[in-house]
Specification:
The protein is mainly α and 141 residues long. It has one domain (3-140). Helices cover 72% and strands 0% of the residues. α1 (3-23) packs antiparallel against α3 and α1 packs antiparallel against α6.
Length: 141
């Protein structure tokens, strides 16, 4: 994968995700910020994209895997904090719900799109990783 293609993928992946994650907050501020959490460690993904194409050494492969693991771990810990944030605005039917559940009732399609977009990007990155490692290992044999 050429560097320009990696940068293009990273920018498009980031901009689309960020746009919809910010849209989930809503203009009134009554939405959920849970989808902004992955953006806190998004820089790791650009380092990982840089590493793709440079995975000849075991050290680079371990670094790639550790960066992804740290990205996922931090996201899980932060999402856990956001999960039960009480909803403070909107209709009385939403009172007592978490902001995520209240947002789910109003914006189901956007939430499904965000989750699918994030997962597809992650799958793409991991598929590229395994293809590259496999092709490097075949050459060495």
């Amino acid at each position: 994968m050429k560097t320009s293609n990696k940068i293009l993928f990273g920018v498009i992946y980031t901009l689309v995700y960020a746009f919809f994650a910010i849209a989930m907050i809503n203009p009134e501020g009554t939405g959920t910020g849970i989808f902004l959490v992955p953006l806190l460690t998004w820089g790791f993904l650009f380092v990982v994209l840089y590493l793709l194409g440079r995975l000849e050494s075991l050290r680079a492969r371990i670094f790639f895997t550790l960066l992804m693991a740290v990205h996922y771990l931090i996201n899980l810990l932060l999402i856990n904090n956001f999960w039960n944030t009480p909803y403070s605005g909107g209709s009385s039917a939403d009172k007592g719900k978490s902001t995520l559940l209240a947002s789910w009732d109003r914006e189901t399609n956007i939430i499904l799109f965000l989750v699918a977009w994030y997962v597809l990007g992650q799958v793409f990155i991991w598929v590229k990783f395994f293809k590259e490692v496999r092709s490097i290992d075949k050459v060495k044999i």
